Every structure is written in C-alpha cells, then in structure tokens.
Amino acid sequence: MNILTALANNKINEKLKAVEDINILNKDIQYKEGILEYLEKNKNIDIIIFLEELPGQIKTKKLIEIINSINNKIKIIIITNKNKEIKNNKTNKKIRYFYLEKINYENIIKMIKIKNNKNILRLIGNRGVGKTILCIIISEIIINIKKQKVLLIDKDKNFILTKMYSRNSNNNENLIKIKNNLYILKDEKELYRIKEQFDYIIIDSNEINVNTNNNQFIIKDILILEANLLELKKINNLKLNNIKGIILNKNNKNNISEKIIEKIFNKKIIGKINYNKKINLFINNNFNLFYFSKNEINNIIRIIENI
Asked: Does residue 210 surpass a pLDDT of 60?
C-alpha cells in the first residue's frame, strides 16, 4: 500500500513508516502544492492523506480535481480539524473526510484501515434465519450482476456452505474455486494473505456473539433477523453492540414493527428481504437467479451498497 502524506507533521510520518504493509513514499509534505509536485515525479500511489487546513494557494476542490486527472484510482483521505459537519462525498467514493480535534498516529492508522478496507461482511444471527442461503444469494448477485470477485468464508463446523456449493463435499483444500469469480475459504487465518484478490469477502458465521476487533482488517457485522417474537427471545440476551445494522430476512406483513426492532437493538434496519416461495427452486437448480424478480435483485443490490 503506497501512501503519500501531507499532514505538516513529520513525527506522524516517521511513525507511519514503521508500520508493516504501509509504504510511506515521502517525507511529510508541508503545503498543498507539494502534493502535485510529488505526483509529477511518481503517480504510483494508492492513498493520499492530507490536512484540509494545509497551507497553500490551491483550494481543496481544485486539488482533488487535479489529483483525479493525474491518477483517478488514487484514494483520498482528507482530515480536518475544523468543527463542522462532515459528509461523505457520494459522487466520488474514492474521497473521504474525517474530523479530528487532535491529529495523532493512532487515528491516522484507523483512517487508513477504514478507507482501504475491503468489503468484508460477516452475517450473524440465530440458526435457521437463513444466513447461509443469504450468503449464497448475495454472492451470486455480486458475481453475476456486479461482475465482481467474491470470497466466501465457511465458519460452520460442518462446512454446510461448502457442501451446498461443492459437489465433492470431502474436498480437503482450504481455498476452493467454485466458479469464475467465486471461491470458498475454510480457514480464515489465510484471509490476510489473499484478501487483496477479492472485491467482496462474505463470512457465514455460526456464531452470533462475535468479536469484531481485528488488527489486520475491519469486519462489518450484519445481524440477520426474522422479525418474530420467538427469534427476538432467542437473541435478547446477546451482546450486539458492534453490529453495523440489521437485515430482516423472510420478511412478511405479519412481522413485528420495524420501529420496535430498531428500538430493541438500537440499530437501524438497513434492508428487508421478502419471503420467496421459489427459494427451494433456487437451491435445487444450481442457485439460478432466474427465480428472483428484477425488483428483488435490485433490492439486494441496494442493501449491499448501503452496508
């Protein structure tokens, strides 16, 4: 990961240089025009981190435009110490703002991890709520509609996900190629080594009370929930503070109120997937998306993009 810093802070720059897997290319740049001067010599950069209040004649908006014209693949982290509302740039997902009252090394590392993080999703929930099938549906949509590469991680002790996909259920390989752009990994200890090869990484977890802290990457935990009283009773005493949000699966008109669910978990419902009568046909016919309507597929794409 090649990073250019312009924070007007040489001490942070030197500490970042000691971090494994982060390649700081420069002595810390002290003014905005210095970023463009560096890019004239070296365009091979993954991330540029700069302070919005950095001295210079060029305005931030113009600076971003020029950076994009030089190399539109560069990801940009802009840090500001102005106390203002920061909104993510929805027109360009390569740009992200962060407000920090005090700029320090630890927070800069966190910013880098958030900005460079892969789409690593972990589906958690009670047994039987449809986590494994949902992993498959999401994966098939990503590889067939979004045309991106997916790694599934099978955390079930019986490797149910692997058995559903692989004809050879006794396959002892750790990384199994299922089809073009779709792989299954059995041992997530290998994830750090291979994660850069994939656009999305989806973990089918057999646990519900999981630890999201990881020094190597950030995992987004999504609670899969059937909105009925029995499921709420099963899940009531578990710690779910770290979940990103809730997906209501097998949704129907008899569900418990969404407002009540959001109040119970103090988390937003980020999507709903209606009960599909053809789900068994989908499973029995090699996971063919033909059994989902265009509206159903578009709904799941919206959920994926909102996570």
From this structure: no
